[in-house]
Amino acid sequence: MSGPAIGSRLRVRAPAKVNLTLRILERLPSGFHALETLFQAIDLCDSLEVEVRRESGVALEVVGADVGPADDNLVVRAARAWLAETSVEWGLAVRLTKAIPAGAGLGGGSSDAGAMLRVLDHWMPGAVAEERRLAIGAELGSDVPFFTGKGGLVLGRGRGERMTPLPPLPPAWLVVGMPRVHVATGPAYGRLARGRAESRGAVPPPLFDGESAVPRSWPEVASLALNDFEPVVAGAHPPIATALAAIRAQHPAFALLSGSGAAVFGLFTDADAAERAVGEARAACPESRFELARTLDRLPAVEPAGP
Ligand SMILES: C[C@@](CO)(OP(=O)(O)O)[C@H](O)COP(=O)(O)OP(=O)(O)OC[C@H]1O[C@@H](n2ccc(N)nc2=O)[C@H](O)[C@@H]1O
Ligand SMILES: Nc1ncnc2c1ncn2[C@@H]1O[C@H](COP(=O)(O)OP(=O)(O)O)[C@@H](O)[C@H]1O
């Protein structure tokens, strides 16, 4: 199978996501929960530079954060899974620059894995069929299929892997708050399920019933915006509640926890208001990190890496 020349290099930015809505539905026979979520990509990005080398195997250098051993890194696992499906004999050297905090509900690791799969497909289009790439992604994590696609706004169902790409909404700005606490995803699902069992609360219905119900404007999103994790996660971690309150005090269109946290965000339809809000949130809540971000209509394209 022919492929790129030894020494070929590509670069891609791997964006974070926020969940504009996140509804946790019933527990599936697999033990995982079905969910319904609106993923939105934002321009807070890691970046990946990948070089084809003669020696087989995947070498990884991580800059900017310690995200654990290379063998466990989602980039390496994604690359190995793709290589295992092909008969290519070359290897890869990857430089990953982290800006998205790990394990924050912003999907950074999942995005890095999706970016890796997009780079490999750019070099050898279709060498691993799209369906199989999505399956590799889903095995690595529920958010990875979103990051192997194209769209910036996607409705995810199932574990997140059944995706409906949606037309982009008008540009918007986000104040993203990153409290310095770690929320483990498994226990967060457990706490939510126990809370529902104790209150004998019914599993809530999905928010979107068919595509006609999908929001076409930010006020429509604001009227639906919710995250089922927010009460249990913000309740258990006061720094998250404090960061959310600091953002809400700036009157965003809406503000939410992202994923299972700890990151939170407020969405603004006005750039100046968002810029003022990020300054105010930093002043009011110096113990958390706050960054300004923008919505992305599409995932960033794979491009040649410079010399
Ligand atoms: C909450 C979400 C929403 O987008 O995002 P993040 O907070 O990670 O960004 C995802 O569902 C995160 O899915 P994923 O990244 O696959 O979760 P993992 O850490 O692999 O799962 C840890 C544990 O959480 C539980 N789990 C996870 C996903 C799911 N749909 N149902 C579950 O019950 C399972 O017990 C699993 O063993
Ligand atoms: N490339 C990577 N970047 C960040 N974390 C990674 C990466 N590869 C593996 N991990 C592991 O995956 C976990 C979840 O990462 P991430 O996708 O950033 O968070 P979340 O699922 O909360 O959005 C991290 O705690 C880390 O141990």
Structure report:
With 307 residues, the chain is of the alpha+beta class. The protein folds into 2 domains: 9-168, Ribosomal Protein S5, domain 2, CATH 3.30.230.10; 173-294, GHMP kinase, C-terminal domain (Alpha-Beta Plaits), CATH 3.30.70. It is 31% helix and 28% strand. It has helices at 74-84, 108-123, 130-140, 144-148, 185-198, 218-224, 230-236, 238-248, 271-284, and strands spanning 9-27, 33-53, 58-63, 91-97, 153-157, 162-165, 173-178, 254-257, 264-268, 289-294, 303-304. The strands form 2 sheets. Strands 1, 2, 3, 4, 5, 6 and 11 form a 7-stranded mixed sheet that branches. Strands 8-9-7-10 form a 4-stranded antiparallel sheet, with helices on one face. A hairpin with a 4-residue loop joins strand 5 and strand 6. The mean pLDDT is 94. The protein binds 4-diphosphocytidyl-2-C-methyl-D-erythritol 2-phosphate (SUD) and adenosine-5'-diphosphate. Adenosine-5'-diphosphate (ADP) is lined by residues 67-68, 72-75, 96, 102-110, 112, 259. The active site is at residues 17, 143. Pathway: Isoprenoid biosynthesis; isopentenyl diphosphate biosynthesis via DXP pathway; isopentenyl diphosphate from 1-deoxy-D-xylulose 5-phosphate: step 3/6. It is an enzyme of class 2 (transferase).
Set out the fold topology.
Layout: E1 9-27, E2 33-53, E3 58-63, H1 74-84, E4 91-97, H2 108-123, H3 130-140, H4 144-148, E5 153-157, E6 162-165, E7 173-178, H5 185-198, H6 218-224, H7 230-236, H8 238-248, E8 254-257, E9 264-268, H9 271-284, E10 289-294, E11 303-304
Parallel strand pairs: 3-4
Antiparallel strand pairs: 1-2, 1-11, 2-4, 2-5, 5-6, 7-9, 7-10, 8-9
The structure holds 4-diphosphocytidyl-2-C-methyl-D-erythritol 2-phosphate (SUD) and adenosine-5'-diphosphate (ADP).
The site of adenosine-5'-diphosphate has 18 residues, from helix 1 and helix 2.
